[in-house]
Amino acid sequence: MQSETSFFDGTLFKKNVTRYWPIWAAYLVIWLFIMPIYLMMSDFNGQSVFVNDVTDLMNAHPYFSVVLAVFSAMAVLSHLYSQRSANFFGSLPVRREGIFLTQYLSGLAFNWLPNIIVALLTMLVGIVKYASAGTVATVTLVWLAEGCGVYFFFYTFAFLCGMFTGHILALPVFYTVFNCIAVALYMLLETVFRRFYYGFIGFPDSVGRAVDWLTPTTKLTGLTPSSFIDYSLTDSSRLRTYGWEVLGIYMGAGLLMLVLAYLLYRHRRLESAGDVVAVRWMRPVFKYGVAVCAGLFLGYLTGDILDGDSMYVSVVAWSVAGCFLAQMMLDKTFRVFKKWKGPVFTGLAMTAALCVVLFDLTGFESWLPDASELDSVEIESFGYQLYDSGEWNGLILTTPEQMEYAVTIHKWALENRNGDGRPADENMNYRVTYKSGLIKHERSYSIPLYKADVDKPGTASWAAEKLFEDRELYWSTYGFDRLEEYIASGGREIRFSYNYEMEKYDREETELNDPELQYGYFDDNNSIEFHSFENIRNVLDAIKEDFFAGRAGIRQVGREYTWPERCRSIDITWTEYAPLSLFDGLEGPSNTRRSEYRNIMITITPEATKTLEAIWNALPEELGAWGYDTPDSIVNN
């Protein structure tokens, strides 16, 4: 009789399903209770209830999948982690391709088959109790497709991780590390660079977006039901694009990982059973990867605890120790000190990298922008005095003169990074972004400002004062130009309120309960709304007059306000309606934008006489009821 070589073994598949039944059975029972049984026992009826319940449960898929995937992979690949089992499977009359496919499909069935059973029962319950067959089928199939797709990626990922190791306990460790390594290194490097590089804020947004894609647990768990399906299924069955595009990309990556896992399995040595790293070319990657991560994390932590100046030594020392530790795991022995070349190389390489940072060989710290080559400068943080929109919105500088002031502040920060010994009249948190074409440079400095330097050109205090004095710049920063455009276009839906008592201060109560508390408590009923558009327009005109006359929204270097006792605020909110539009790209779900909420808060000080008079004329009875008898008493009481 001619023997046959099979590419799939049904007996082996059945044995996997029956041997590891607690894995898929537990998953099935959980979903039976939270889907068809719950819907059947629910007292609510109606199509919208069914749609909301099923789509809300889609949020659970990534969390179930990320855990179930690693347990399934550990089960079906367990034969690789014992020398006896590996030899037995190698002697079966089944090609390696057949064993690989059988084991892979076994683990895939642990999720897909229960999902199909739950979906069929859910559709049955939905059709009988809730809604039309079309809506029930659409929603349930979306739930099924999303769940199977997410599991396919995580399971294939775990299966690939299992190819790299010969130890069953190393598989979940590798799986967890590879799922989080991108975001962990991103956060770790940002933390280290902020400590080593003066002015470093963080990596560009493009790097952060790339890290999100390289962290599947973050990207896939961040998807919501609205990423896949339109909630208005009672009217139409529209599927979104964003969620399916993201899931499709990860499933494509899963196919590539499946091919790589197959190639590794074909060339896998049976003798690797029990090794932490079973693939030879991955051993140096593991060794030096552990060394670098240990050096950065433990070195930074140790240096921060002991002394900041010792951090460089700590990073190098822990890198060397991490290299020895990785060698111990690879050799499965503590006798690794004869293999000193790798750790020495690691120490020298880390020392060289730290010298690049320490001596600023990249020129990061000493970089100074050329104002003539900049398109714009965005100052996100520029000191806090009035605590209103003029500070929260940040400044956008576009004129050459404005950008020269920003460069002057930057230059002064570099030349005086340690200060000059004088006590500062104000400490400014200067966070700035320079834009030149598609290139962005971000920096952040804590800069001391001095009143005595306001009239000294070239100092940070002088440049900051020049920007403070730019009325057009701050009018736009507050958003008043946008409000004027809204009114000119016929917009009248404006909510205009005056906060007449920003905060009440009960000295006796404060001292009794908390002597260190400075500001008492807030009163929720502390504003009066302007219901007349004529009054709104009058107050807005008064604000503008005071603003450009230098009596409102004024900031000066080192100026101190008695806030909130001698300051009040005006809140202005409105809604701008825009045509329907679609968000393009893969950065967010495709959706429509119907409106955009706008808000301005401006702090009013005693100098804003025209504004106080306009408020008084608009609200004489309301303010009189609170004991105010003149316009200036509004902020002076």
Set out the fold topology.
Elements: H1 10-19, H2 21-41, H3 47-57, H4 61-76, H5 83-90, H6 96-129, H7 133-164, H8 170-196, H9 205-213, H10 216-221, H11 242-266, H12 283-306, H13 311-331, H14 341-358, E1 376-382, H15 389-392, E2 395-397, H16 400-415, E3 426-436, E4 439-449, H17 460-468, H18 471-478, H19 480-488, E5 494-499, H20 507-513, E6 527-530, H21 533-548, E7 568-577, E8 595-604, H22 609-618, H23 620-625, H24 633-636
Antiparallel strand pairs: 1-2, 1-3, 3-4, 5-6, 5-7, 7-8
Helix pairs in contact: 1-6, 2-6, 3-7, 4-6, 4-7, 6-7, 7-8, 7-11, 8-12, 12-13, 12-14, 13-14, 16-17, 21-22
What does it look like?
The protein is an alpha+beta fold and 637 residues long. Helix content is 55%, strand content 10%. It has helices spanning 10-19, 21-41, 47-57, 61-76, 83-90, 96-129, 133-164, 170-196, 205-213, 216-221, 242-266, 283-306, 311-331, 341-358, 389-392, 400-415, 460-468, 471-478, 480-488, 507-513, 533-548, 609-618, 620-625, 633-636; strands spanning 376-382, 395-397, 426-436, 439-449, 494-499, 527-530, 568-577, 595-604. Strands 2-1-3-4 form a 4-stranded antiparallel sheet. Strands 6-5-7-8 form a 4-stranded antiparallel sheet. A hairpin with a 2-residue loop joins β3 and β4.
